Amino acid sequence: MKAWMSLVIVTATMVPAVFPANSIGADDTVVVRDVVVEFAGKVDVPARQSGPVAELNARLNEWIGRDQVIAKLDDTALVIRRRAASLRYESARLMLNDYVEIQYAETALAEAQAELDDGQAASDRVSGAVARNQLRRMKLAVERAELELARAQKKRRQDEIDMQLRAADLAMIDHELKQLEFVSPIDGIVLNVHRELGEWAHEGEPLVTIADAAVLHLHALVDADRLDPSRCVGLPVTVHWSAETNTVARSSSSALNASAASVSEQTLQGKVISVDPTRLPGNRFRLHAEVQNRRHVGNRIPQQGEGNVADGWQLAPGMEVTMKIHCSEVDIARRKQRSGTELGR
């Protein structure tokens, strides 16, 4: 009975008091409770080609890493095309590496030039030893061999261009294959899966929506009498909320595990990034802050076949939080002056 009374007393002390939407904490802070927590950014991963979904590796609320392949369209036709293009490229590469024609033309030129040199030398030693017609044919044979060599060299340059074209065709098909993949541009959580396995995805339509859970935006309504909106941007903020954590206790008299819940205060640091120029009723304005979220490790009761560590994020959109805005020195001085004036009255 005493244990139950103690639990009731402890629980009662954890119930937060009710405060107005904006209140003054210390002289250097403004406490805001009208706060909405949202993801800083959401990304729709679109289909870059049209076709049926062949692979789907993303599930709702699953953590996705940057550059991770989350889905893929059917690539059967492109794989066949790539095989044919690869064979054509290999054939062009073999043709480029074949030096037989150039070597044959060089050999023929060397032979023709040698015959011409011998005939010319004989004619120089003994006039008329080699007929003029014969010398002319020898010279024409050398010119013909030179043209054959030039033609072989030109063909080799053409073979080199042909291989580059085949390589470009292969690269284009590889690019089209990459276009069939859905790759996450950010680290985040899957908020929505718009197509299921086997469904047709149209080019430009989103397949998966991913939110960046590492950065959160907080939107708050602040009383302009408490904080000057023209000096808000850049001010540091602290976000507070209460979170329940489960602890595992083992009874000394039995082998059963018992779970007890405790409430702990969680905080994140950030800064004000912008202020809406429009004033709202009640002399309030909307303020936007950004905080870097953190992953935490929470304990839970181990189940059979499971581990005892659960991974997650400290703060999630939709949670009730309190934000403390740390005022500038000008705002602190202004508030002290206003407090002194009110006391003087």
TrEMBL record:
Which residue windows are coiled coil? 102-162
Q: Enumerate the UniProt keywords alphabetically.
A: Coiled coil, Signal
GO cellular component, as recorded: cell envelope
Location(s) in or outside the cell: Cell envelope
Q: Does the keyword Transferase apply?
A: no
Q: Give me the segments passing through the membrane.
A: none
Residues in the signal sequence: 1-20
This protein's record includes keyword Signal: yes
* Database matches in InterPro entries: UPF0194_transport
Q: What is this protein called?
A: Signal peptide protein
Organism, scientific name? Rhodopirellula sallentina SM41
At the highest ranks, the source species' classification is: Bacteria, Pseudomonadati, Planctomycetota, Planctomycetia, Pirellulales
